[in-house]
């Protein structure tokens, strides 16, 4: 069930994340030129509404359609989404997420039905007219069918959010958001749910706190600082570097393993997140666009001009509360954590002595396997922790004098078929297995100080230098 939720969430966020640059461009224009912006300009401000109501939904629809049926899927997804856009007077991000992939699925089924049935020389004619005719019909259907459905859904969501806001209960959303993040649903929650709600609020208020509910780096910073103070072994030694990467680099996934080592720490990030949201709410803090990655620099860049003080206070409060709650929990769980580390170290040394690595089912893969030419580091979105892990691996491979080995970073849901070894977090092991069943899988828990990196390098020496 968790894997299915992750896959669904990944699909939703996968429609938004490739277009984050466009969201940031819209956010910058909004922050600068809206009526209460840094440089109010009525002429330039005319870009704000068309970008949010047309450009961004069309990009989302094209991306979602392309994921289902390639370029044809992207084109027909954009065509159908115009029906959703014209049929509503609010930004239709959820409508685009529905219309884009659904339309692409329809054209994919049509193309499969027509396969080997078109006479030679008529392929382009059939392809173009089928796309045009079906696209036109889907645009009409979206206008009269999908738009009312999404409008009703938006109304329900708005009422639910309004209830939380009106009754001062918005901090309670941390009870759901923080555990979802640790299960690697952070991109799905932020870009699939909160960002569309935030953009609609920006249209009304010029800023939105929804962009901060998941992106706030404070709770994770508190956890890592707690490990710096009361951690044990490699967890303590790697925590300072992880804190820098998390807070300044915006790679939140880096602190998830520290919570998974001691699951009770989820209470600390819940409390920290709630404290941060409470401060943001009472001080009227908001961003003008999604902050991605969730770096302090990105958050400050997207901050509405009157919100800087409240923003810093909220992040500080989140980090402080998370730290204060985590310290006693970490000390309480310290013995179990250090014992587990000792066991992992023992098993690691045993595997290294035998020259083996581990796949996702803990089956030994011996050094007799073939020469390795391509390794992938996979994470949920393929950009944050995987890029960092790939960099670490490249440096270790280069230092070992190994040549001809390509190391890439990729989303866990789309690992290339020619990848021979996949390195990923253990929570993503099942998804990696489905994405590329033929690849060996090395599962890690610590992105910075994983002993598996050195084991892999030693294994590569044996396999590539025989």
Textual characterization of the structure:
- The chain is mainly alpha-helical and 466 residues long.
- It contains 16 helices and six strands.
- A four-stranded parallel beta sheet has the order 4-3-5-6, sandwiched between helices.
- Strand 5, helix 15 and strand 6 form a beta-alpha-beta unit.
- Helix 1 packs across helix 3, helix 8 crosses helix 11 and helix 13 crosses helix 16.
Topology:
Elements: H1 2-16, H2 20-33, H3 48-86, H4 93-114, H5 123-166, H6 174-205, H7 210-213, H8 218-230, H9 233-249, H10 256-261, H11 266-282, H12 296-302, H13 308-354, E1 357-358, E2 364-365, E3 374-379, H14 385-399, E4 406-411, E5 421-425, H15 429-435, E6 440-444, H16 451-464
Parallel strand pairs: 3-4, 3-5, 5-6
Antiparallel strand pairs: 1-2
Radius of gyration: 24 Å
Give the strand content.
Answer: 5-15%
Q: Indicate the structural class.
A: mainly alpha
Helicity, as a percent range: 55-70%
The sequence of SSEs as H and E is HHHHHHHHHHHHHEEEHEEHEH
Query: Which residues sit in consecutive blocks of at least 5 with pLDDT less than 50?
Result: 349-368
């Amino acid at each position: 069930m968790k894997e299915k939720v992750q896959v669904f969430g990944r699909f939703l966020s996968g429609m938004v994340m490739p277009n984050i640059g466009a969201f940031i461009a819209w956010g910058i224009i909004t922050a600068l030129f809206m009526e209460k912006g840094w440089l109010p300009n009525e002429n330039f401000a005319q870009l704000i509404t068309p970008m949010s109501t047309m450009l961004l939904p069309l990009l989302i629809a094209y991306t979602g359609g392309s994921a289902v049926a390639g370029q044809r899927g992207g084109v027909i997804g954009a065509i159908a989404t115009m029906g959703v856009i014209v049929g509503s007077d609010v930004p239709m991000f959820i409508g685009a997420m529905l219309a884009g992939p659904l339309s692409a699925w329809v054209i994919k089924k049509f193309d499969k039905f027509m396969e080997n049935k078109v006479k030679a020389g008529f392929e382009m004619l059939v392809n173009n007219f089928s796309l045009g005719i079906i696209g036109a019909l889907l645009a009409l259907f979206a206008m009269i069918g999908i738009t009312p459905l999404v409008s009703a859904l938006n109304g329900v969501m708005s009422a639910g959010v309004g209830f939380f806001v009106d009754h001062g209960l918005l901090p309670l959303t941390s009870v759901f958001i923080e555990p979802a993040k640790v299960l690697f649903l952070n991109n799905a929650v932020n870009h699939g749910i909160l960002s569309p709600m935030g953009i609609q609020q920006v249209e009304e208020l010029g800023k939105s706190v929804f962009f901060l509910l998941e992106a706030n780096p404070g709770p994770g910073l508190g956890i890592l600082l707690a490990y710096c103070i009361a951690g044990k072994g490699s967890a303590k030694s790697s925590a300072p570097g992880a804190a820098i990467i998390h807070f300044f680099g915006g790679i939140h996934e880096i602190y998830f393993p520290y919570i998974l080592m001691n699951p009770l720490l989820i209470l600390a990030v819940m409390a920290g997140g709630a404290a941060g949201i409470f401060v943001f709410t009472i001080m009227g803090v908001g961003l003008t666009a999604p902050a991605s990655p969730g770096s302090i620099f990105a958050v400050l860049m997207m901050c509405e001009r009157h919100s800087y003080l409240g923003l810093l206070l909220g992040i500080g409060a989140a980090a402080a509360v998370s730290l204060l709650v985590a310290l006693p929990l970490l000390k309480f769980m310290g013995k179990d954590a250090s014992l587990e580390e000792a066991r992992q170290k023992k098993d690691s040394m045993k595997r290294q002595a035998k020259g083996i690595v581990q796949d996702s089912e803990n089956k030994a893969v011996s050094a007799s396997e073939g020469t390795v030419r391509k390794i992938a580091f996979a994470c949920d979105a393929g950009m944050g922790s995987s890029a960092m892990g790939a960099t670490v691996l490249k440096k270790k491979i280069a230092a070992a004098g190994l040549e001809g080995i390509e190391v890439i970073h990729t989303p866990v849901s789309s690992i290339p078929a020619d990848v021979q070894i996949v390195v990923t977090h253990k929570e993503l092991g099942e998804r990696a297995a489905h994405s590329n069943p033929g690849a060996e899988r090395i599962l890690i828990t610590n992105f910075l100080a994983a002993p598996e990196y050195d084991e892999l390098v030693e294994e590569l020496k044996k396999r590539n230098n025989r």
